[in-house]
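Course assignment 3, question 2. Fill in each field.
Student: A.L.
Task: Predict the tertiary structure for the chain below.
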Amino acid sequence: MDRSTLSPKIESKLIGITERLKSLYADGLVSVILYGSAARGEFKKKHSNINLVVVLRDMSLENLAKAKRDLSSRRYAIFNVIFFTEEYIGRSGDIFPIEFLDMRDNHRVIYGNDVFLGIDIDMKNLRFQCEQELKEKLLQISGFYLINRNKGILTAFLFKSFNSTLHILRNVIRLKGRVPPTDKEGIISELSREAGSPLASMSGILEAFKSNRRLSSGEIDRLFFGFADELKNITEAVDRLSI
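Answer field:
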């Protein structure tokens, strides 16, 4: 899958880090794979990461250390790199179903084998992780709101929490047996249909995020309260799911 729309400058750096990894690891390098928002074509420089999976034959810390100088350099600071072996990927889908489903469905092979083809995820494991992470999000949102008063800090946290929560909510749609949309509007629309009513607060957060406008104290309160209520209702629905 390749819907990425990265700038020529970033594409050049992507090629550069791939060539460097090939030089460092030679036959020990299995794959370099771009995944997430950059592979979906939704990369935004100020709000998105450029996520790379590097698959090696040897994932010992001593072997990983070969790339330390390059990965810590300013040139490649834009990349968020994680290392796997093929065996690790094959054995970890039950522990990280959300992460591996995102990698499977939104990736671009830069070099080597497509190690995400054929990954099979048990929906029971996915339901458990969705419920767990949504409940954690609710605790984080309420806890952060109660101890912070600065509008700028609250707004930044609200946008960050919203974006990371949508990543979980895409997989709630999977639990219903449907292919989830890749865009934020589509996710909210699909969940609204499932809930039988509009998710007004999530839509409001998305509108404010896309327009990058300042929120008043009253708006911040309303969006926090509504977002928490909507998440609570979705979490309870996930908890009731029988798979």
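Instructor remarks: The longest strand covers residues 29-35. The chain has eleven helices and four strands.
Grade: pending
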